[in-house]
Structure formats: C-alpha cells, structure tokens
Write a structure and sequence with these properties.
The protein has helices at about 10-20, 40-50, 60-70, 90-95, 140-150, 200-210, 240-250, 250-270, 295-310, 335-350, 360-375; strands spanning about 55-60, 80-85, 100-105, 125-130, 155, 165, 170, 175-180, 195-200, 275, 285, 290-295, 350-355. The chain has about 375 residues and is α/β, with parallel strands linked by helices. The chain folds into 2 domains: about 1-250, Aspartate Aminotransferase, domain 2; about 250-375, Aspartate Aminotransferase, domain 1. The structure holds pyridoxal-5'-phosphate. Pyridoxal-5'-phosphate (PLP) binds near residues 61, 89, 181, 183 and 194.
Amino acid sequence: MPGFEIINHKEKKAVNKIFENGGVLFAHGFEKSRKNFHVREFEKTFGKKLKSKYNLAVSSGTAAIKIALKALGVKPGDEVITQAFNFIATIEAILDVGAIPRIVNIDKSLNMNPEEIKSVINKKTKVILPVHMLGVSAEIKEIIKISKKYKIKVLEDNCEAIGGKYSGKYLGTLADIGVFSFDFGKTITTGEGGMIVTKNKKLDKYSREYHDHGHENNPKFPRGKDTKTIYGFNYRMTEMQAAVGKVQLSKLKYILNCNKSRFLSLKKNIAGNFEIRKEPNKSISSYDTFIFFEEDNKIRSKIINLLKKEGYGTKNLPDAIEWHCSAFWDHALSSKEIKKSIKTKEILKNAIAVPIWLKKTPKEYENLGKKIKKFK
Ligand SMILES: Cc1ncc(COP(=O)(O)O)c(C=O)c1O
C-alpha cells in the first residue's frame, strides 16, 4: 500500500502549481487561462510507462470497471464471470449495468481458477473479469485463450497489481480492456481515481464519451456546442488528482523496487516452514502483499497477533475478508453464487496477508520472518 506513504513536497508542489498557473481544476477547455492539461498528460505518461495504447483517466477504479463493461456492450440480463476472492466493487459494477455476476472459485494462487470457467459459460456470457489480486497475476493467457474459444471478451481488473507483468507485458494491458485504481490504499494514489486502458480505438472512444456525459470533444466546436451520439455520465478525473498522479507515477519504479526487497526479505525467512501463495510461471509480481497459509488455528492467531503488535497489521486476510470474499455478499449475489463461493472461503480462511510497507525496512521484514518462523 505504499503510494500514500511517500506523498511529500513533490505532490504538494504539483498541486500548488495549478493554483499559481490560473487555478483551472477541470480537465477540458480554458486554454487561455492555464499552462497544463494535467489529466491528458497523466494519461499520456501512464501509457508510455505501461506501453498501453489508449488511456483514459476516470474518477475511480469502480467507475473504470463500469465504463469498461458498458464499452464492451454488456446489457441488462447478460452474464459476467468474475472470481470469489475479489473486492465488492467488481460485483457492484456488474450489477450497475444490469448484468448478472457469475462466480468462479480461486486456487492457491488466490486468483481465478481457469479450470472452473468453462462450466459457467453459457449463451448469456458476455465478459470474463479476472482480478490480479494483491500484486499477483492471474493466469491471464489461459483465460484469454478460453475467451477466444467462446468468442467472449476479457476485462482485466488490475486495481491491485500495477507494475506487475505477465510474459513481459504489464498487467492490465493484455486483454481487450483493463482497469486500474488510484484510491487511497493503492500502489500509486491520487486519493480517488482510476484508469481504463485498451488497444481498441472503438472501446476507447465509447469510454471517453460515456465518462463525460457523451461529449465527443469535437475540435470543430466549443464545448457548449459539442457533438454527441450517446448519453453518458460524469466519471471525470480532476486536474488536482492528475497532478498528484503524475508525481506518483514517477515514483512507481522506486515503490516496486522497495516492495520487492521487503517482500523477498520476509520470504527467505518463511519459505520452507510455511506454504506460500503460488504465482504463475511467466509472471512478475508487484510485491504488494506477502501471503502464506497456516492451517493450525492457534499458530495462525499467534502470527496475526504478532503482526498487530509490531505495527504491520494484516491486509484483507483476515482483517477485511468480509469485503473481499463473495461468500459474504448475500446482499448482492444469488444464493447459488454464495453457495459456490464457500470453496474459496475455505482456502482464504487459512491465509495470512502481510502488507508490504515502505516505512518498514527490509531488515525489519527479515526479523519479522525470523519471529514468524519460530511459531512453527
Ligand atoms: C480489485 C479491485 N477492483 C476494484 C476496486 C475499486 O477501486 P476504487 O476504490 O478506485 O473504486 C478496488 C479497490 O479497492 C479493488 O481492489
């Protein structure tokens, strides 16, 4: 969760500059009274960094998922397949476009189990929505292969693994469309914010128009006379968010390197004594969270207490499992999907997720590992 840990004078200066240069906080227009177009620049630098063709900054990761589903043509009554270890936002976005969420369980990688996908596909299936949970890539190539066979689309939710890779490509850029979040707890943060990336011009065009009341931003007309063909909504990012985002993006490499050194310091002292979360062969993690399994309740409690006492806490597992496992979402899912999710709950109940903090040193993670090892 390091983005917010290293907010400093650089982000402050970037925001102050907006006010010094005319104070325009809106992404569009006001050409004469501003020096920069921060949202457009944030999109451009994001695309350059992640080698993604079309990039659209929006107000949140949740908004990004909803817009991407609309762009893919998901209509009321269609089905969207996603996974049981997740964040509620994904389900909310599916429901908000009137579609039906269908749940697939995870495996010991804590990501979507591709073997379960085929059994859920039917005539109503429009999209598969895998999530790269807590830094680790899904089996995204396998999922894309299945989608091609059944002629359905893939939306990658990469809100939790920015900077991670699969087969040398950045997560979020491999499927038809991908989404990112920059909320307060993400690897880079703009407070609230999101990004939609795609190689497909049509998907970008629809998303761009939908997120901005249908505006086509036709260069031939002033904004008040702009052309439109669809109605949309307001999911725009502000200039202040984008100014912070550009600075945070310049810190991404540093954050990923710091994550890695801390993650590996912990891993080398735990591996061998505990079962560790699996990662796909061709993937590189963003090392956001270290996850391992312990079946013995007493040992697990001791470890969790140690993490609390030493100021690490846990991330999602177990502290916020109710918001991350679909077995708890009877306010949003059918009883059939809840029942199905029990298998995932069983895997998650033994998992401990250690957040990787920048403010803690690799040495501290090494010592933490040594202490955890003694419980076995
Ligand atoms: C997997 C996943 N998807 C979507 C979201 C939603 O992002 P946001 O908080 O920016 O709306 C989150 C945020 O926690 C997430 O973890």
